[in-house]
Amino acid sequence: MLLKRAESAMCNLYNLTTNQQAIRHIARVMQDSLGNLEPSLDVYPDRPTPVVRNTSEGRELVRLTWGMPTLLQFLKTKDAPDTGVTNIRNTQSPHWRRWLGVENRCLVPATTFSEYGPRPNACLPFSRVR
Q1: What tens digit of pLDDT does each residue of 25-44 get?
Q2: What would the 3-class secondary structure string for the chain be?
Q3: Pairwise pLDDT comparison (117 vs 91), residue with the higher score
Q4: What's this model's pTM, rounded to 2 decimal places?
Q5: Which pairing describes strands 58-65 and 41-43: parallel, antiparallel, or unpaired?
């Protein structure tokens, strides 16, 4: 089962409570390079997370760190490590367009996610996608 939010924006924290076999099955994974998956995983942008990506050998389940490359003008110095960007609001920007093609798409399994709201526990509803 995939979850889809009523709105398109997503926050920077989510949780994964499914098992590795379920991810492999629903995503039709051909290779599993993940290692052991913890039974419940809180995922923040700076932590590796399970991701299904396309490779020349088929779909692969791996651990990747969540984020897109930072615009150079926002790095503190030219040689500063890039910690990545996790909220992209302007997909029309030339910087982002090159990353939005089919060849860069992946599936990020998530059970629930958190979204910042103006009041505590202000979560928007989820809807099931079949």
Answers
A1: 999 999 999 888 888 778 88
A2: CEEEECCCCCCCEEEECCCHHHHHHHHCCCEECCCCCCCCEEECCCCEEEEEEEECCEEEEEEEECCECCCHHHCCCCCCCCCCECCCCCCCCHHHHCCCCHHHCEECCCCEEECCCCCCCCCCCEEEEC
A3: 91
A4: 0.69
A5: unpaired
